[in-house]
Design brief:
heterotrimer; A mainly alpha; B mainly alpha; C mainly alpha; A: mainly alpha; Helix Hairpins; 3 helices; B: mainly alpha; two-stranded antiparallel ribbon; 5 strands; 3% strand
Amino acid sequence: MNAVLALSAVLFAIGTLGVLVRRNAIIMFLCIELQLNAVNLALVAFSRAHGIDGQIFVFFVMTVAAAEAAVGLAIIIAIFRHYETVDVGSFNLLKW
Amino acid sequence: MASAVVLLAQGGQEVVEGSAAHASFDPLLPGLIVLLPLIGFLVNGALALSHAKKSADAVRVGEEYDPHTGSGGGRDLTHTLPSWIGPGVMLGAFILVLANFARMFGADLHDPVVLEYWTWMATGTLEVSVSLQLDPLSMIMMLVITGVGFLIHVFSVGYMKDDVGYPRYFAYLNLFVFFMLVLVMGANLPLLFVGWEGVGLCSYLLIGFWFGDREKSDAGKKAFIVNRIGDFGFLIAMFLLFTVFGTLDFVAINAGAEASLVYGGAMVTAITLFMLLGASGKSAQIPLYVWLPDAMAGPTPVSALIHAATMVTAGVYLVARTSVLFALSPVGSVTVAGIGAATALFAATIALVQTDIKKVLAYSTVSQLGYMFLGVGVGAYAAGVFHLMTHAFFKALLFLGSGAVIHSMHHAYHATHSHEDAQDMRNMGGLRRYMPWTALFMWIATLAIAGIWPFAGFFSKDEIIWYAGASAVGPFAPLYTVFWVVALAAAMLTAFYMTRMMVMTFHGANRTGEEERGHLHEAPLTMTVPLSILAFLSIFGGWINVPEKIRTSFLGGGGALPMSEWLHDWLDPVVHAAVVVREEALVAAGALAGQEHHYGFLEHAPVGGGELTWALISTLLAAAVVAGTFILGARWAIRPAKESAPLAGVKKLLYDKWYVDEFYDAVVVKPILGTSRFLWRWIDRGIDFVVGGVGGVTKGVGWVGSLVQTGSVNVYAFVLTAGVLVILWFTRF
Amino acid sequence: MTALLNAVAYDAWVLHALVWLPLVGMAWVLASSEEQAKHVAFRVSTALFVLSLGLWSAFEPGSAELQFASSTPWIDAWGIDYALGLDGLSLVLVLLTTFTMPLAILGSFRYIETKQKGFYALMLLLQTGVVGVFAASDLFLFYVFFELTLVPMYFIVGIWGGERRVYAAVKFFLYTAFGSLLMLVAILYLYVQTRGDLGYASFAFADLAQANLSLNEQLWLFSAFALAFAIKVPVFPLHTWLPDAHVQAPTPGSVVLAAVLLKMGTYGFVRFLLPFFPEAAQHPTVVTVMIVLGVIGIVYAAWVAAVQPDAKKLVAYTSVAHMGFVVVGVFALTVNGLQGAIMVMIAHGVSTGALFLLLGMLYERRHTREIADFGGLGRAAPWLATAFVITALASIGLPGTSGFPGEFLALLGLFETHPVLGVIAATGVIFAAYYMLPMVQRIFFNALDRDENREVEDLSGREIAVLAPLVAAMIVLGVFPNAVFERTEPTVRAVLERVEAAAPAPAVEIGMDTTDTDEEGGR
């Protein structure tokens, strides 16, 4: 149990670090997925102790993640088509 | 609207029953009297609009529309019809007025006949209906308005025939008569006010009739705005009356005045003073007289009708109509008299040196209106109305005569394409050889206005002067004595400037110019016939109100001449109450103790001498001035306008009208304009600045906040993570 | 006529039709082609006007009760009803609206050249909002309509306006929204209070008027309501949005703004301020402040108007002056004053609406609003000049035209209670001539010395059709104003009885400092 949670924490930290330091939108995106899956792992682990709820949550998160992946990748592709780069440092679109 | 028209024509509902003893006066179609000029206005107005369309089309292609060639080849119908409709409706109205006048004889006139048509404004506390009032006073005014008005309409046919705006002219003129009739027939103050502002509107439109000329439309605007200052006073007077009486009907006010108002009280004084402000605006008295001389920019028949015979006398009418109020307020009355006397003298001094023939007549009108105010101010209401009537005759004649002269001069200059001033008397001289009839008629009017026996003006003006002296009793006796002297002096000035005008215009050598001389001509019949009728009235019009003392003396042919004191008796039902109030107050104050008096007026002038003596003195003095001026005038060396040297000294001061216009401009007009600009540039924009400031502060705060929004995903993610860590740190337990 | 109306059960459905048919018309406009849009809109609004004419004959003049009334629960839990009904005041304002709208639409045929469908759809949406405001007898419903009018007007100014249209539209929106949000808070407070007092939830006017409020509460609520309406009116010094909005708005926008939208503010004064907060409304400080602001509006706006180089801005300022007469008439708290105030609302709607239409026609011809660019048009376009002069005279209150009875009674009412302020306010009649006549002179009189002005065309048939009803209304209202007075009198009396029934405000014992009231009333 503790080992699983520790793994989950490590994975989440890696994901967070990845989002913070990498500038490639695809990598950042994958890191976000990593974070999500770290949380999933933790939820499954907890469900062993506390009942079925955690597993249901995991399914829910996976569905959302899939939807998010579709939308996110579409945005990245759109941005790439427009700017021919996926380096997030080179645009500040969120300002507007 | 249609139902109202039918109602008007049929005659409304009579609300005040006459007393049972005498058959009360049964009016004949009184509504139609008012309606006829309105119909004339509507028809002429429609014609004018269609006419204006054609002339506008001509303007667009850069031409001047000529009504004589017109579209159909022959004469344009929109141009010929008004010649019949304009005077036609006036004739109809005049005949109806005469018919009603005839019916009034023998009827009991003590109570006015009030006819109600429809409710105009009824709010619950205030009830104002559209009702006409027929009584001796309104009848006199109606006779003058429709009678003199008709003559002036006929004259206009000759005078304005060639003008492009001919139908529009008659539309305005008819509309004016309509409003003027509403003014004198309205049975309550708001309805009178409708006429009051309505005639002001027509005056505005007619002064600026040739609106393409900046100066003329300026003059119209000035007349309207100055009149509005007076109207403001009128409004306040109405409000005050309403707070006292709860109604604005003349009948109720006159009946309840003595009971509701304290003699000499602050309320009645305030009412009369505000009313005086209104009256002095309309009747061109100091301090609001400045618009009338400028009003001469309008066509000359307009000056005759509106700015001499009818509209400008509305103030006098108002005072006579509400005479009880003025009688209740000695301060109000003395102010009216004082303003009148001051205006009479002041305007006369300006008239002394004017060279524009219409300007002389304009200031003469202001001066004569001053006499009327003096008359109603001293309590001689009938005398004031009497002078109003005779003045309508001879001043209309003078204006129309001057119109004939200007018409002729204008033609002469037009024929030679000269740009000389057709109204400048320095360009005239010797015109009696070219227009003998006009000269004769104008001399009659001049003798009348100068107060020469037995012309109309003698009787009316002398009566006012006499009453001014005879009223020198009570607390304001010294003031009335001064007014009397002033009135006598102004009468002498009148005799001088009028004779001067006649000499400069009709006598001596002609100064029009060699070439132009051949084009001078007598006026056509449409113009001279009205003049002759007015001349007749200017001679004999005064004989209807001759006091017994004069009638039976040699001045009345020892009673052989057909004279009477008719007007005095006729107006008695209207002004009796006021005369009695004045007399009773004087008696109560003991002012009349031991003095011979007649209705509170002394039987002798302030320096002694009776009515007959002073009548004789004044007419002899006036005759001497006229004769002297005429004889001396023959030796004046007058040069045509373009060769004249500029004036200097007192003459210049008078010629420039004491610089009153300039004074008003500097003290009133400029400061108001300056303040207006200040308010706009600083206060209004200041408010905007403050409001904008509130928005600005909000924006500024937002801008500071927006600095955080770099738009970079990395930064956001970093801040997010940092925030989470901080929160976790604080919530670690 | 009456028989016919009874036969079709006119009373039962007419108000709903007047409120909602414009929306049907709006759908029709959107469904029609770009060229047809204006004709559709005109037809719809004319049909609505004809429909509304029945109100005049079906209305029972002597009664202060709501007529044509109906009420259906809308949001039951909060006691919100869909309730409509007319008394004398709302009757004349509804008729003013239905009368003005077709003329404004007809008057915009040439002015509006782009995105016509959208424009005419918004005009009809506006009509729904305005008629709803005047017909609603439920405060919540009123508020919904009140805010609804903002939206179309914002777009009308912002899309079809002049050069600085966005600035003007935003200014207009923020100013008015600011006021109405405060009012919303006050409405909710009033609602909660009423629910407590009555034991049931209701937004009906009649119920809200029964709320048991302390003077202090009344003063606060009064201030919030007054601010919202004062901005709308607008009362000095909250007027600065109006000149900008008017100048930038397209002709029909200005017409509707002046003729109808401003009246929502003064309507609110009479409908809510006096009956809901009678003690506050007759509090001496409040009365004095409101009247002084009204008088300042009359004189100040007249003076500022006189020096405007832009004709449209000049007329906009005259609106402020006219509304000043309404304010002093209302807060005179006399029958004459209130009757006069209502009449000024109507008269101002007709004459100022017509002035904006006329200025629009001039703009279409010369593409300028600068007074100095004109001159002598009386010769080139005599019909236009005639219409303009008559309208200008009605606007400055010449007796015999619509402007006079209202101004006269408003001033009379004011004079009865506040003589000195009445005298000052009456100088407005002088200054009215002082701003209006020079403009008339500089546009239509003087020399026709510019070739562009020589080319100016006279009125077309369509323009005559726009102006003739307005000019006729000016004369008819001036000659027979009593037709309006006898219908509004019961309402006025009911309002005043309500005010008089409330005990006169005690001198002290007020928690709220009176100086605060000053600022509230006059912000």
